[in-house]
Write a structure and sequence with these properties.
Strand content: under 5%
Number of domains: 1
Distance between the termini: 54 Å
Number of strands: 0
Order of helices and strands: HHHHHHH
Number of helices: 7
Shape: elongated
Amino acid sequence: MSSNTSSVSKFLLDPWSPAKVAVPSIIVQAIIHRTVLEKLPIRTLTLWLSLTNTYWFATTLSHSFLDTPIKQYAPNVDKEQSTNIGRHIFSWLNKLEASYSFHGRGHVAVGVVSLDLFCVWRQKIIDRGGFVDKALVAATLVPSAIVILQSAYLLPTLNERADKLIKGQSLEPSSVHKQYIGFEAVKVVGLAVAGIRFGKLLTH
């Protein structure tokens, strides 16, 4: 059991693990794009976009701002345990989001590529003489851009600092944690706006 836990922990905290998840997801994405997404009508694409953003919003809000803080600040959890819990939860969420941003893996109920889904939808709108306003484009793309930033820089930096803290080493002052929280908040807002906007489009 301990070896399994160790293997999972090593994978979650591996700075290259988002890429290890994303690469096979992108391959599957290419297949889904050709066989499924391009054949879907605009209304179906809009429905999936609404569901995708709403689901992602709910999971991010729950894990980042509700569930994890409660676990970390429980009375019987010390600082080292709190740090270890937090870094594992956010690393796991990041792997799901890295996959989720490129492919529905880990989110079987959705099963589509978030970014590719939006690009196909947007192109079909343009082909019919319509347009997509910049606010909706930003609300849809910013969350995925934030996931990339978190995967490439913020989370590895936080995990490195957490590892030092757990080992009892001193830490230099840093704003990385506040930056991570700030970007999570922006991500939640973007997902909420996108989910609502796509939902409203279904009523037209």
